[in-house]
Amino acid sequence: MDAFILQILNGLDKGSAYALIALGLTLIFGTLGVVNFAHGALFMIGAFCAVSLSKLLQLSYVTIDETQKDFLGNPLKVETPYVESWFGPEVGAAIIDWSVPLSILLAIPVMILVGLIMERGLIKHFYKREHADQILVTFGLAIVLQEIVKYYFGANPIQTPPPDALLGVSNLGAWFGFELPYPNWRIVYFCFSALVIAGVFAFLQFTTFGMVVRAGMADRETVGLLGIDIDKRFTIMFAIAACVAGLAGVMYAPINPPNYHMGMDFLVLSFVVVVVGGMGSLPGAVLAGFMLGILESFASTTWATTTLPGINQIIIYLVAIIVLLTRPRGLMGRKGVMEE
User: Fold this and answer.
1) pLDDT of the residue at 79
2) Transmembrane segments in this chain: where (predicted)?
3) pLDDT averaged over the chain?
4) HEC-encoded secondary structure of the chain
5) Domains and CATH numbers, the chain
6) Measured over all CA atoms, what is the biggest interatomic distance in the chain, rounded to whole angstroms?
7) What is the pLDDT of residue 171?
8) Among 58, 95, 178, 299, who pairs with 173 as Cys (CB 3.0-4.6 Å)?
9) Cα(334)–Cα(252) distance, integer angstroms
10) pLDDT of residue 177
11) Which uninterrupted H or E stretch holds 181?
12) pLDDT above 80 for 1
């Protein structure tokens, strides 16, 4: 039973990343009708926001400490981070330690700005173009962003540890009388993802802005005839979708050390999630994200890989084939979406 629950938790953990990225993809497609192959790059940029802030907070200056000597009797050179000199040793050390969660404060404005620039500078010119054109131009943009990150940060993964207080594991099975150790940060990531997903749905469901956006997704022309600047609202939704992808990347950095191709790694799988859930369906994207994450987790067990070698690499695509053969619109797809 504990092994079964562990695989469920692993699936929810990976499914959280799939669901967040797929949610942003669906927001963009549902509002703007754009198939955005640069969305994985937004996830990557978010992860490197965490890397950048971590490196920034560790910038230091060198002082001579007369109280400490090296083996030759010379005073030692001591590197002191600027934040420790500004806020004191204890507070400064705590800020450096919690750099990943604090990166959220950096990522939100950065991702909103990147999203606005991307939409206003490039994607708005492709609204009325074929989906193939949209895929080509956004895929090209993703490659450009990937190479920029590679140039500035290098090709190797960069370790970005979580706060010391969240290192280690917790026994989730203690309340039920069995051992179920699970990494603390993965629990935090799942809870964070759930909060972001709930926040997006609450924003769309219970705010006037969200209700107008949902109406525009259903009938853009009629909403425009009511005198509402729906294009402006859709641009804001693009920025929000970029922010969701960026936040997913920020909090995923301690789980998977950021590298320049991590956006591409998640992009293809996230598009499969969107298709399985149903193009344009926000609940479908979230449901499919968690479902496929759990299936992939079970397919990665020793028993599964021994019985069917390589099944963990293809399980998501097999499920996608089965779903699309039986339900061509996906699990929760709407009639008329990408059927013209």
Assistant:
1) 81
2) 16-35, 42-64, 102-123, 187-213, 234-255, 267-295, 307-325
3) 86
4) CHHHHHHHHHHHHHHHHHHHHHHHHHHHHHHHCCCCCCHHHHHHHHHHHHHHHHHHHCCEEEEEEEEEECCCCCEEEEEEEHHHHHHCHHHHHHHHHCHHHHHHHHHHHHHHHHHHHHHHHCHHHHCCCCHHHHHHHHHHHHHHHHHHHHHHHCCCCCCCCCCHHHCCEEECCHHHCCCCEEEHHHHHHHHHHHHHHHHHHHHHHHCHHHHHHHHHHHCHHHHHHCCCCHHHHHHHHHHHHHHHHHHHHHHHCCCCCCCCCHHHHHHHHHHHHHHHHCCCCHHHHHHHHHHHHHHHHHHCCHHHHHHCCCHHHHHHHHHHHHHHHHCCCCCCCCCCCCCC
5) 2-326 (1.10.3470)
6) 82
7) 83
8) 178
9) 31
10) 67
11) strand 181-183
12) no
Among the listed ranges 171-180, 267-276, 288-297, which one has the minimum average pLDDT value? 171-180
pTM: 0.88
Q: Which amino acid is at 90?
A: E
